[in-house]
Amino acid sequence: MKLCAIRLNNVRRFTQPVEITGIGPGLNVLSAPNENGKSTLFDALHALFFYDAKSWRQKEAAALAPHAGGNPEISADIEVDGEMFRLSKTFTKTSGKGEVTVHRAGQLFKQSDAAEAWIQGLIKPPKDGGPAGLLWGRQGLTTLSAAKTDDTLAARRDLLSSVVGEIEDVTGGRQMETIRAILRADLD
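-> structure tokens emitted (188 positions)
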């Protein structure tokens, strides 16, 4: 599964529609000053993939609503096995009334419980054939919890080693640090 675009409306500070498109293969970096909505964006993605649309009672889902009120709407364009899909969820305060749809190539593919089940199939654990892991560097998380299972730790280590490789490719790795040190010395 590849994430290609994210859209939010009525999610915390984003009371007007906002979208991030052009997410490509390899390493993508989202950078902005504090209090510009980066954590909100990732919390919304988390809700899209891990919270049932009908679960307003989950405090995390309810926390997505803006202070002015409204129903949080989250969607993402993803690529799965070469096909494009748009996942969309709307969380509502009315219990059991949230909406979830999956469109494939612009046509309704799944909705309601069938859509939730399809999304869950995308994120099944690695031991069940799911992805090696989602890069989810939550703010403040700096260590691996000892409470994690061996499978989870192995998947996370594999993911982190992949990310290190991507970062080294983009920045030049250790060679780039050597060049920077020489330049700093010359400038001094």
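Residues 44 and 74 are 7 Å apart (CA to CA).
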